[in-house]
Automatic annotation (TrEMBL):
Domain named RDD: residues: 48-121
Keyword line: Cell membrane, Membrane, Transmembrane, Transmembrane helix
Keyword Membrane: yes
Protein name in the entry: RDD family protein
InterPro entries with a match to the protein in the record: Pra-immunoreactive, RDD, UCP021697
Length: 127
């Protein structure tokens, strides 16, 4: 049994490289969703499907290029492989598709990894 989230993955208990906690995750997704809503409102008169599409595109583009979405980076987090390293190109697509379904993102393991991260082989860590 692990004494803290991320121990099984070899991550530190706190500080840089530790698992991103719930408060930071919620703030990051709220930032990303708010930005997607603003763009949707400006160009599509706030269409729900357009907002979701913009949100997904931002995730898919920014995770491989800057290590996380703008919300992740503002909250000082990054997406990486579970055992370290670049998430690659296909993992952000799988992770985002599952995140957009919502249910996989709210099912967590002992390491505070959502099902979307487990399936993609990624983890959200503090930077």
């Amino acid at each position: 049994m692990s004494s803290y989230p991320g121990e099984r993955l070899g991550l530190p208990e706190s500080g840089p490289g530790s698992v991103g906690r719930l408060g930071r995750r919620i703030a990051a997704i709220a930032i990303d969703w708010a930005c997607a809503m603003v763009v949707s409102l400006a160009f599509f008169h706030y269409d729900g499907f357009a907002t979701l599409t913009i949100f997904a595109i931002v995730q898919i583009v920014f995770i491989p290029t800057i290590g996380g979405s703008p919300g992740h980076r503002i909250m000082r987090m990054r997406v990486q492989l579970a055992h370290g390293g670049w998430a690659g190109l296909w993992r952000p697509i799988v992770r985002t598709a599952l995140l957009c379904i919502v249910i996989p993102a709210v099912i967590w393991d002992a390491d505070h990894r959502g099902l979307h991260d487990k399936i993609a082989g990624t983890v959200l860590v503090r930077s």
